Each structure stands twice: as C-alpha cells, then as structure tokens.
Amino acid sequence: MTIYPNSSAPNNSARCCPVPPPPPCCPPPCRPGTAGNGLAAYGGLYNATTQLLFFTQADTYLPVSLNTPMSARNVAYPAANSLMVAEPGDYEINYNVLLNANKAVDAAIGVRRNGAIIQQTRGSQTLSADGSTGLTFDARLSCSTIVTLAANDVLDLAIAILRTLPANLDAIINGNANATLTVKKLDPIA
What we know:
Layout: E1 2-5, E2 14-17, E3 42-47, E4 51-53, E5 62-63, E6 68-69, E7 75-76, E8 82-85, E9 89-101, E10 106-113, E11 116-117, E12 123-126, E13 128-129, E14 137-149, E15 154-161, E16 171-173, E17 176-185
Antiparallel strand pairs: 1-2, 3-6, 3-17, 4-16, 5-15, 7-8, 8-15, 9-14, 9-16, 9-17, 10-11, 10-12, 10-15, 13-14
C-alpha cells in the first residue's frame, strides 16, 4: 500500500491506495520514487569473527573491525570498517557491541563521522564481572539515535578505554550480532 493525498477525503487527508492507485486517489508525483518503496537509504556492517583489541593508551579510539557488509540501498562501503551515505538527510544510527576483557575497565564507544565522534552516539560503561566464571568482565554497548548526515559522510565505529589503561589488558569483541553498525534514512514528511 502507498499513501497518497486523496482530494475527496476530508481536509485533503491521506489514505492508503494500492499501486497503481484507482480513482479517486491522487497518482504520483505526491512523493515520486519514495512513497511505498520502503526506506530511501539503509545499510550496515558487522564483524563475522571474534576480534582482539590492542589498546596502546587510554582515551584513544580504535576502529572496531566490521568486515562484513549488510544489504544496502544508497549506502556504499568505501573502505574497510566504514560505510558512506549517498543521500543527505536524517538517519537513525544503531550500533551494538559486546566487549569482553580480563579486567574491569571503563570503555567508551561511538560512531565517527569523517573521523570525528558524533556526540549523540557516544556511550560508556564500566565492564562488570561475568556471572558464569567471575574471571572475565563484560559490557554491552549500544545506541539508537537520529542524526542529520550530509551526502558522502563516512561512518565507522570506534572504541576506547577511558582514563587508565591497565597493564596486560586482554580485550575482545565477539562476532556476528555482537559487533554491528546500521543506518536507516528517515523519509522526509511530504
């Protein structure tokens, strides 16, 4: 179903019409090329394998490896671990990361736009003891926000250990659903 303004509806309100619309629905171009066609732009990345993180100093962001592209529309994958939006607009950005370490540390994560952290996407958490063994510490870092992006903005996901980097820190991010970054363009209101 596609929503087209209907001149016979009260106050020219919207009504669902099949494609192609029968009378009295207004035919396109109410929203040419976008109405009823799903999202105008979307895409994402995930890491298919477990990745080791090698932090060399506190408060310095490292890129999260996201080596597998998801289905995309008007989103490209210009370089390793990154995606590029083709259209300007408001986007919903989501990420999800499960971080495991051998020490309780404070971790921060965020999406970078053209190399700079987007503040609305930055989150931090202290890893807590894993209940199954008590020998490891875990944190699930996730975000869902809406950000205005320009055409050709390049996004990647980056992580840091905050304040103090303990000696002999072993940190990993498990694969598949434990390391994801997605974007969805929100259609403008017609």
